[in-house]
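Re: Re: ligand-bound prediction request (bumping)

Still looking for help on this. To restate: I need the protein modeled with zinc ion bound, output as structure tokens. Inputs repeated here so nobody has to scroll up.
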Amino acid sequence: MGTYYVTKVRKQAVASKDGAYHEHIVGVVTNLDIFYTNKEVSDSIDAGHDWYTAVDKEPRAKIKKLRFCSGSGCLHSPYLTTNPDHTTRNNLENLPRG
Ligand SMILES: [Zn+2]
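Reply:
Sorry for the wait, this slipped through. Here it is.
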């Protein structure tokens, strides 16, 4: 099984039904500079591969699947998140844009 390290995220600004804007992740970029959509990462996790965020001087955070974006009323699916730990710098949502 493979292990992938995510260094950047790609986000898109969207309006939800109530008219509020938020940004959500549409894909990630790995340390090898390859772009994967949320769906590709989700399918890869289902296939047994491991995905982590990789931020300098921070512990790796494991990426897991969410059914939907956590934005209010947003049905963007599948979605990705990381388990919270003692730092937020390695949170998927906080990675640099790529
Ligand atoms: Zn959303």
